[in-house]
Amino acid sequence: MIDLLFQFLLNTGYYLADYRNYIMLVVGSTFLYLGTAKKYEPLLLVPIGFGILVGNIPFFKGFGIGIYEPNSVLHYLYFGVTTGVYPSIVFLGLGAMTDFSSLLAQPKLMLLGAAAQMGIYFTFLGALFFGFAPKEAASIGIIGGADGPTSIFLTAKLAPHLIGPIAIAAYSYMALIPVIQPPIMRLLTTKRERLIKMPPSRNVSKKELLIFPIAGVLLCCFLAPTALPLLGMLFLGNFLKECGVVNRLANTAQSAIIDTATIFLGFTVGCSTQADVFLTPKSLGIFFLGSVAFSIATASGVIFAKIMNLFLREKINPLLGAAGVSAVPGSAREVHLMGLKQDPTNFLLMHGMACNSSGVIGSAICAGILWSFFI
Amino acid sequence: MAAVGASIVFSGLVALSFVISQIHKILALWEEREKYLARFKKRLLARAAEKIQAPDYAQRQFPDADELAEDYGPLVDQLKQPFTLSQLFEVARQNDLPHPHLSIQRLQEAGILVAQGDGTFTWNR
Question: Can you list the alpha helix ranges (DSSP code H) found in A253-348?
Fold first, then answer.
């Protein structure tokens, strides 16, 4: 009986754990703290944080428990990540939740969404320089798009062994938008520029909103067919919302479906950060390059807005460039808050949302293009 | 590779932004199509009518030889017979008579202005 008890103790997590597990448990707890106490992107950080805790409880290998063990429950749930199913479903819900009217009212703001994607390509080059393989470099670069599902989708296709660190880096930086973006915005703009007021948007008709997803899917997916799993679902979701005849489907897509996908996506990505797989020098490199990607993306958007102002008669507020990254609606909110700080009557939220939604489209196209380069 | 990728993304989004910037104009055109079609048809009809009427109008409006003779008779009286066409033309111009070339040609065709064979003309009325 003592032998049995001894055997049992040898199989417990307390015995099997090493210092790396404890590091990851601290990381997971930090995510939970940031999500719950600080309310930084709680919908993402809570499932990911809890997943990190679950994924880093040590277990006896070979029993089909861990996420990397075939036939385990977690492994089956993780299937949605490795095949890119969850990101596509998230995009469906995202489309059903997104109102593109601000973008349709000011199409020129779409260029800021394109400019902010430069972070992806600069980081891609940076990662190649630091010795990452081309497919890994592309997966790291996409962090600059600031779009978790897109990052996971591309990494699942190009470098599945890096899903954990890349997903964690992407979601961490999305959650840290209030910390990362404001200093860059302040550094690159003058007070006078931050005070520029945007004209009120024109009213967009229902028919325009209805035509947009069709025009969008045809134009973007003909250009980059590899972006179909993401953009096809995004525009489908948006069409469900705008057509007005399938409200039940639209409501389900923007609530139950996206919520379910987010839970499983976040949780399994968290679980995939098993200490022995996650705590490697490569992960540190990915975190470093991810922050570079995010910063360059923000800076590119702001600088491009300033360049546009050289040619535009009606100037745009360059802060909006920072909302060109596709972290919806975090970066738009940050731009809005900075605008309000300078002038309490300057409301930039809706204009920021226009840049944000174009950033979502832009980063999905980027993912498609990068994937197609390596097919 | 990075430059190509960035260019593709940019051109894609530029194309999309151009398309969406035109959607409301195309919709406005479609919604007002009856009005525009009617205006177009009206313009086409007016142009066709102009084409048919123009020669008739010119012919109808231009005075015949007898009427011209009435206008030009007093001018010829001022000239010494026989006279050259350039003299008659000059007098007609001084009196602001319309279309002097055409009128003189018409008078010649009607035999009211008779050539003398030496570059001069006489008035046959």
Answer: 258-271, 275-278, 281-311, 330-342
Residue A25 sits at the chain B interface (C-beta within 8 Å): no
pLDDT averaged over chain A? 90
Q: Using CA atoms, how far apart are residues A301 and A320, in angstroms rounded to an integer?
A: 8
Task: Give residues 84 to 123 of B whose Cβ lies within 8 Å of A.
Answer: none
A200 Rama class: left (phi>0) / alpha (psi -120 to 50) / beta: beta
Question: Which of A:103-122 have CB within 8 Å of B?
Answer: 103-104, 107-108, 110-111, 113-115, 117-118, 120-122
Nearest to A220 among B6, B12, B21 (CB): B12
Q: Residue A107 and residue B1: Cβ atoms within 8 Å? A: no
* B83, β-bridge pairs: B121
- Whole-angstrom Cα distance, residue B19 to residue B25? 10
Q: Cβ of A22: how many Cβ atoms within 10 Å?
A: 12
Do A31 and A169 form a contact (C-beta atoms < 8 A)?
A: no
Element (H, E) at B121: strand B121-123
Give the pLDDT band (50/70/90) at residue B59.
low
Tell me phi and psi for residue A132, to 5 degrees.
Answer: -75, 150
**Beta-carbon contacts of residue A15 (< 8 Å; ≥ 6 apart):** A9
Ordered by start, the domain boundaries in chain B are 2-52, 65-123
**Rounded to an integer, what distance in angstroms lies between the CA atom of residue A133 and that of residue A141?**
12
What would the 3-class secondary structure string for A119-172 be? HHHHHHHHHHHCCCCHHHHHHHHHHHHCCHHHHHHHHHHHCHHHHHHHHHHHHH
Q: B5, A215: Cβ pair inside 8 Å?
A: no
Instruction: Give the residue-averaged pLDDT of A220-225.
Output: 90
Is A232 a residue whose pLDDT tops 90?
yes
Cβ-proximal residues to A79 (8 Å cutoff; 6+ apart), any chain = A85
Query: What pLDDT is recorded for position B73?
Result: 85
Instruction: Say if CB B91 and CB B75 are below 8 A apart.
Output: yes
Rounded CA separation A302/A49 (Å): 32
Sequence-separated (6 or more) residues with CB below 8 Å from residue A74: A54, A55, A65, A66, A67, A268, A271
Entry pTM? 0.78
CA atoms of A64 and A70, how far apart (whole Å):
6
